[in-house]
Design brief:
mainly alpha, A middle domain of Talin 1, 2 strands, calcium, NCX_ion-bd_dom_sf
């Protein structure tokens, strides 16, 4: 399988970094390629452990470890003090899960199933979409507050504004985590029948691994992702410089896709089998988890480790993109059915946003950066 063949980049990346002392670009590329299959194995191991843990604890494990690879990558970048890249990765994960992951799943389902309309649970998707929209509003409040404070009518000093931004972000982060915990109670305990997927859907593994094996893969995969994330974060700045791109662009596109690639694969897999409920749940669930858990956790972790990070996004375009994504997803999923063309539209919006982020990011002019890309890869 192609995914497993990428595991070869695990020893290659370590060899390039610690033995050959290769240029950072090659370390970055091989670390990225190594993280992709590791994240997939982490997802599989979580599912197998969940089978042994029972439906409630298993559901808790699945939703909690769903974004573990992305969280680990972000923590190492945060420890390097690069908060702008971390925030870019958060934005990229939200728009990537909702547009790229869900869009690929819808397109795959449409073509494999003969172009027919694909149906899914409208009530379930509607609740997830509403929760995504309300969560996004909470997540973007610190940025809206910061932009308001810069208006002449308020004229807050930069130092005072930064302090207020940090305090507000911590408060919002705590609220988001509380909402996340209450959401677990809602979806796994009090209203689990609403969010339950039928047994025919086959979300869990057909033949579960022994518990010891699953736990070993889970712990080992986490450790290896941490190791590769350290290589990746260490090579990020030099790679961006060599490619003529900004670290912001790499964070919002490359790192976001790498951290969530396993979720995209899972969504496409279930969509191809006609299990659109699962595909939609994976796409929307992963998006909500980034906003409700990953982002606030990074704010709290940064404050505890002496690397404070607020939730004020680097560009107004990020703010607009996140809110627009929530509205687009609500529009696409509200009727409980979809076609491959709607998936194409989601992918088109994602590519348009990626292009916009490419041109608006700071650093070298984008055309010059793009022109240098091939020369950098060819040495």
């Amino acid at each position: 399988m192609l995914m497993n063949s990428l595991l070869a980049f695990l020893p290659i990346s370590l060899l390039l970094n610690y033995v050959v002392h290769a240029p950072p670009l090659w370390v970055f590329v091989t670390a990225v390629l190594a993280i992709v299959p590791l994240a997939d194995w982490l997802r599989k191991a979580t599912e197998h452990v969940a089978v042994h843990a029972g439906p409630t604890i298993g559901g808790l494990l699945n939703v909690t470890f769903g974004n573990m690879a992305e969280l680990i990558i972000a923590i190492f970048i945060l420890l390097d003090g690069n908060t702008q890249v971390v925030k870019a990765q958060i934005t990229g994960s939200i728009i990537g899960n909702a547009l790229l992951g869900l869009g690929l799943a819808i397109v795959a389902a449409g073509f494999v199933r003969g172009g027919t309309r694909q149906k899914f649970n409208a009530a379930n998707a509607g609740q997830l979409s509403a929760m995504l929209f309300l969560t996004v509003i909470m997540l973007t409040l610190p940025a809206i507050f910061d932009y308001t404070e810069q208006l002449p009518a308020f004229a807050a000093g930069s130092e005072a504004r930064a302090n207020l931004d940090e305090r507000l972000s911590i408060g919002v982060a705590i609220l988001l985590i509380v909402v996340y915990l209450l959401n677990l109670v809602y979806t796994l305990v009090t209203h689990k029948d609403v969010f339950a997927i039928s047994e025919e859907a086959g979300h869990g593994p057909e033949k579960p691994w022994p518990l010891a094996t699953a736990l070993g893969v889970l712990l080992g995969g986490t450790a290896l992702i941490a190791l590769e994330s350290e290589l990746l974060s260490g090579a990020l700045e030099a790679t961006a410089s060599q490619l003529g791109l900004s670290e912001f662009f790499l964070g919002i596109i490359v790192l976001a896709v790498v951290g969530n690639f396993a979720e995209y694969i899972a969504a496409v897999y279930f969509a191809r089998r006609g299990q659109m409920d699962l595909a939609v749940n994976i796409g929307l669930g992963a998006t909500i988890q980034v906003a409700l858990l990953t982002a606030p956790l990074l704010v709290i972790i940064g404050a505890l480790l002496g690397h404070p990070m607020n939730l004020v996004f680097s560009s107004p375009l990020e703010l607009i993109a996140i809110i627009a994504v929530a509205l687009i997803v609500t529009s696409v999923t509200k009727d409980g059915e979809t076609t491959w063309f709607e998936g194409v539209l989601l992918l088109a919006v994602y590519l348009a946003l990626a292009l916009a982020f490419f041109f608006v990011t700071p650093g070298e002019a984008a055309p010059e950066g793009a022109a240098r890309l091939w020369s950098a890869l060819l040495g």
